[in-house]
Design goal:
The chain contains 17 helices and 25 strands. By secondary structure, the chain is an alpha/beta fold. The strands form 4 sheets. Strands 3-2-4-1-10-9-11-15 form an 8-stranded antiparallel β-sheet, with helices on one face. It binds 5-amino-5-deoxy-1-O-phosphono-D-mannitol.
Length: 613
Amino acid sequence: MCGIIGYIGNQKASPILINGLLRLEYRGYDSAGISTIEKNGLSVMKDKGRVQNLYNLDGINDLEGTIGIAHTRWATHGKPSKENSHPHLDNSNSFAVVHNGIIENYNDLRKFLSDNGYIFHSQTDTEVIPNLIHYYYSKDKNNDELKILRAVQSTCKDLKGSFAIQVITKYMPDNMIVIRKDSPLVIGKGNGENYISSDIPAILSFTKDFYLLNDYEFALLSRDKIEFYDMDLNKIKKEVKSIEWSASAADKNGYEDYMLKEIFEQPNAIRETIGSRLPENEPCNFDDLNFSKEFLSKFNKMYIVACGTAMHAGLSGKIAIEKLCNIPVTVDIASEFRYRNPIIDKNTLCIYISQSGETADTIAALKLSKAKGATTLAVSNVIGSSITREADYCIYTHAGPEIAVASTKAYTSQVILLNILALYFAEVLGSVPAEEISKIKKEILALPSKIDEALKSAKSIKKFAKKIYLQKDVFFLGRGVDYNTALEGSLKLKEISYIHSEAYAAGELKHGPIALIENGVTVISIITDENLVEKTISNIQEVITRGANTLVVTNKNLPSNNINTIIEIPDTHVLLSPIVSIIPLQLLSYYISKEKGLDVDKPRNLAKSVTVE
Ligand code: M6R
């Protein structure tokens, strides 16, 4: 999704802005631009295409301004073009604005402004913003220092939808204004300089100290001061948050692609996420929750709500909570849940999973369940992200920054954290014998080295990828926990290799999809649940008979049974096996994408953080 960068300091802004945009590239975009405050007014340079192209624009090297805003656009209203790129100026070239999010009532606002003589040069929803600011600014007869803030305030009151907005103006050449509602934006505090970004990794090399804005909070930035205001323009105080991630964690570190680096970082991401949650001979440590038996017992059902890969992690969480706590859990897609009027009340615990913590549908679903009186718990990878601030309770995965659009280490970290959470619930409720709990804990602690072992499949997987990369359709099969892995493996393949793939519960095959199996079609199966080995093997035989080319990922000692390729992974407790069995499938989608010469980290049409509906 769109990315925002801002700089206010004493250095030339343009190289810092472009560099920041390059670090936001992974979010997905189709055009880019910057605006700086120059001696003779506001300059705007923008175009469709890659951020790199900005370096070639005439005059870009002549920019001297030390304050500027920048944007990567992911088209929503209007096709990718220079006119539709941000920053946008008002008709008098006095205000430059970049915006993330969607202004839902922009047609009404456009009409209002057109009726008042304003002309539009783009098809975007954003262009109403600088013009509205200008409208309110010129109507205001008071010339005090809050005049511009008032104009931005009135504008934001008119906006329906979601926004993170940065404004610079020739009327305040030493300041910048930012405000947000439902779209991400962080402020990095430097020494005599300050930074704005859509997310933390993009400016980690400049600062580790951040301010996080809540909805409808403003910041008025100067070089050495940041003042915060609420929507009524009362001054408010904000605490600075220090982030532990290192700047190098957001670099490729010698790997060809971020995705490959992140796949190989999984042993450590899991280690960090387990952290101190499993103290020896003691109950799981969730002092951030501290739930009593009485509190947990009131929940007669749970929901796990998320999107995409995070939702797939939720499916493993469901199996763990149901098995260990005997509480029914429904997993729901956030964009469905939010419009379904779900049956939840004060006796429901709703768990929201989001790597970025900024996914618009997940945040909206969370707000809905809060309004219905449910207790909400967020699981996120980003400290201070929107979802963590909205939820009643919050726990973190510690996967480190995930840059590649295709989620890998965040997924396995979510699955492990949900399993530890289920163990914690079970301990508090006393729903599982202690021996069973300590058996699972032991297996959890052994996971990092088992993932290391599974990563050794890379060579054989690469070979298999070379054989199948030109396929048009691929099928994934599994039962129980392995069905969840099939869903996630299939999503990975679609996302970065653009191969059509379907995941099926293996037992469903004969109810329809088997009609699609013909000579040469690739069918990938996962077998890790010992109770279901025979059943899945039978389903695999059904596709082999019909000419399928088969790969099986398994931690069981399978007879070859005419299966073309078997990838062996280490054995573990069945609840944890999705964390190990997904590794070869992540590698497979990676190597297929490379074989096809695609951009692994920035697949077409996708964004890392989906901040619009
Ligand atoms: O940041 P989130 O975890 O909320 O993101 C949810 C999905 O958009 C995300 O998992 C998406 O499916 C990934 N691209 C999958 O690789």
